[in-house]
Here is the input.
Amino acid sequence: AQANALLAENDLDGALTLAGQADPDDPDVKALTHTIHLKLATAQIASGLLEAARQSLAKVPDGFAGKHAAMEALQTTMQKQQTTLVLAKAQELFDQGAYRQSLEMVERLLEETPDSVDARNLAIEARYRLALEHFDHKRFFEVREVLEKADEGHEASMALKESVRTQLVNQAQIHYRNGVKHFINEDLKSAIAEWEIALTCDPNHDKARENIDNARRLLDKIESMP
Here is the structure.
């Protein structure tokens, strides 16, 4: 009775102490002890004492009323805590200018917690900063690759994506014309190489693709001649 009174007053430690002094084989004592451990685990979860909560729940048998809900609450809280720690580390990397590492970390986090708004926003900014870093060093292929997953609602990323597309289309034209010069000089292998670069720069360059096919057929004929 005293243990129940302490439990009602939320004096869990006191109630647990009194329950421990009673007959451990008494079904009512067992039920009371389980209830105390369950309430203790709930309080520990709320206080962020997750390992202590896990230990408290381990003392409550499966199937006991309320344990399943408490286990779910513990798992959810543990996930939130882990998310917070990982996000803080990713933000630290971002602040240090380690955009690739930050992006990789936050992308892994989003695989586990796709609804995290903070993680998604950090991923958008880290991806843009990484792409901008590549752009400043004229690494246009890397920019294009990074921005493949860019958020279409992020205006700066979309503007950068269009800018690099323009740069690569211009480069494609240069390599295409170089290929034509090689073709005119009957250097088919060099022509094909230039057109392949043009196609890498601009996958929609149909003329380069067509010229590659024609040049390869012509090269095959030449090489198969006795």
User: Anything to note?
Assistant: The radius of gyration is 33 Å. DSSP finds eleven helices and no strands in the chain. The first helix runs from residue 2 to 8.
